[in-house]
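Per reviewer request, we include the raw input and output of the structure prediction for the construct analysed in the revised manuscript.
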Amino acid sequence: MNTTMNTPIVISNYLGLLKGLSPELKMALAVELINDATRRETAKIKARKNSAHRFFGAFQSDKTAEEMISEIRGSRHFNRSIAEF
């Protein structure tokens, strides 16, 4: 819903349109509105779960942090030659 709309006026207008419906139709409409809102909220939650956040904590290793740091530092190779003057 557009946040710039004046919500009470919009709701009042819809209620005016729906005033003539039977109670059964109003209940059916209410159920459909709730179902739609629930589906949309569920879709938002699924979208959040499918974002990059699902990768946090995904890396698993039996090595300790110190072992991994040591391995990374040990695998570094520097081929830099210093020019002499």
